[in-house]
């Protein structure tokens, strides 16, 4: 199915949203996007900074095309501003590997397109109203998520804005003991949530322990110096093969002079590395149900979240009763054993996207994401 074709499913309705609040939110997220790219030259904007990532100009055009599709075309019933760009900015029609080679809009042309789409979207908001606000909220969060993706590009390309501000964690080392029993997992009805966060359902979790904070650079350095990337017994077969093929010896972005702050959470580690680290410490990665239960447990809730995305042991799958909305390609095509779930948020995640039920996902070898590690243990 083409992602431009909506499904027939309708999610639980959001509460009424004022048009003025949506207009302010659209303005705020756009200001953030434009400020993010303001320091860069035309050459930096159109260049492929890293094979994994899109040119920053492509991201801008994609943000605008998505807004034109869902607000102007789907919600407003108007033709696309540039129908000839639909496939070019469709993430499935043009995978990242080819985006540097296609005729995407550059420089002033892409900025003019971004501005023109926004004028159309605001006109639709005034003419039609926000409806229940679902499509507007989806577009807002889509742009906010691309802000973080663009920061990943900046990190890999060595550009300003790709590294976090200093963020020493306040919580001490130690463990939270979470009792076994059921809890309600997923997003409740009545507010915005992506399709993979629903439906809310009961999950019974056995007792476990989970670390009070993510693993720090200092702790990871001890893992490196203790042979963490050399001890075969700590690695899965697939992880060891990946490590050997790409000569992985430390987290992405660590430099030879060790210029990383010891007390900050380690960043840019793959699921393979996270899994090996956990095995080396006679621990494991939490399941996403354990992660969510610990975050929402009112007796001793999870601490120091929001610095890094945290890998879980769970594969990305739909919850019981899952229904795709508004298009199948947002979540459903990624379900299965290839992808692992990450929970929480990172320093680069805009506030609008942060949620206890939000599910991020990526392949186990990926390190561009601002991902770290929080350990868990069984209770015996």
Notes on the structure:
With 380 residues, this protein is α+β, with helices and mostly antiparallel strands. It folds into 2 domains: 19-157, Up-down Bundle (Four Helix Bundle (Hemerythrin (Met), subunit A)); 175-378, paralog of FGE (formylglycine-generating enzyme) (Alpha-Beta Complex). It is built from 9 helices and 9 strands. It has a 4-stranded mixed beta sheet with strand order 7-6-5-8. Strands 1-4-9 form a 3-stranded antiparallel beta sheet, covered by helices on one side. The chain has a two-stranded antiparallel sheet with strand order 2-3. Helix 1 packs parallel to helix 5 (134-157), helix 3 (56-75) runs parallel beside helix 4 and helix 3 packs antiparallel against helix 5 (134-157).
Question: What's this, in brief?
Answer:
Helix 1 runs parallel beside helix 5 and helix 3 packs antiparallel against helix 5.
